[in-house]
Amino acid sequence: MTSAVPLFVHYVLYWRSIFKDVFLNQPFKTVLFGFAFSPSLKINVLETSRISHFLGAKLILLHVGSKTEKKARQIHEILSHIEHKDLEVSVQWKTGKPNQVLLDTCQNSAIDLLILGALQHENLYQFYVGSIARKLTRNVCCSVLLLIKPSEERVPCKHVVVNGLEDEETPFAISNAFYVSHALGAKQLTIVEEIRQKEIAVDIEDDKSLKRATILKERLKNREDSRVRKILKSIPKTYLNELKVKTQSIFGKRGYSIGHYAEVVRADLLVMNAPKKTGVLDRIFPHDIEYILSDLPTDLLIVRKRT
Fold first, then answer.
1. Is the pLDDT of residue 1 over 90?
2. CA–CA separation, 34 and 102 (whole Å)
3. Which CA distances in Å does 101 have to 70, 93, 211, 284?
4. List of residues 6+ apart from 268 with CB closer than 8 A
5. C-alpha distances out from residue 99 to 82, 129, 153, Å
6. pTM
């Protein structure tokens, strides 16, 4: 019993330090939006500027390509329509390979959040080869927000879903989810605990085995709920006053299950841990966040501690 107390204290101090860093220090001070001159440019800029305002961040707009008078007039004309005129905005023009330029800019300009427009459904070829968004998500040094449904007029964010899987980075992801929920004025936040089906190693053959599987499921659910409740104790009360917080255990394949859940409940934002470094085998046999990236259910915030 005595040896368990220091361990518990260690975890409490660890979670407190994470939440202190997020809530006392603004996590997203500088936002970068990489833009192209596509038909959706205006909507993306308006949405990105709106998000930056709510996060209290300054916004950098970066175009990877040559600067012309026509392009400059177009982007400045769009900026004249943003809602929040006090937002600090700068426009940058750089040449080179888009992936590398964005990666270098995030690193050298101390970017906290990279925002990208994304296709909601990638085809099979893109999945194996990898889109710009996918490559950046894997390799960038900061958090990434993938937008699939930007709007010219503000659509309030009502429901945020965040992963609650057992991982050392999960407290950080949950703390960021609370911060963003508060900043965007969301009314509900659901923490989804994905439990792998293989943890229920019971073959259902009769009533006895069915009962055994049911009991095991309940125990696993209680275990996950207990772990998440410990994390929630570190959330500042001011962030809980007008936010309905719910925990939801789901059984299934990680990544696929939470993506499906976010789609079913029509979440406005899904928050996930950043993916681990992946190799060739991970692309052939996808897992976790790869399922979400190939079929985005909603806007996706991938949280990463800045490196």
1. no
2. 7
3. 22, 10, 57, 27
4. 155, 156, 157, 158, 159, 160, 186, 298, 299
5. 27, 14, 30
6. 0.79
Q: CB under 8 Å to 167, separation ≥6 — which residues? A: 273
CB 251 within 8 A of CB 213: no
Round to whole Å and give the CA distance between 181 and 185: 6
Domain 4-28+112-303, what fold?
Answer: Rossmann fold (3.40.50)
CB 305 within 8 A of CB 275: no
Tokens of 286: 């996808």
Q: How many Cα atoms are found within 13 Å in the side-chain-facing hemisphere of 22?
A: 26
* Stretch among 147-161, 180-194, 247-261 having the lowest mean pLDDT: 247-261
**Could you tell me the residue ranges of all domains in the chain?**
4-28+112-303
Determine the 3-state secondary structure of 61 from DSSP.
strand
Give the side-chain half-sphere CA count within 13 A for 100.
Answer: 3
95 contacts 153 by C-beta, under 8 angstroms: no
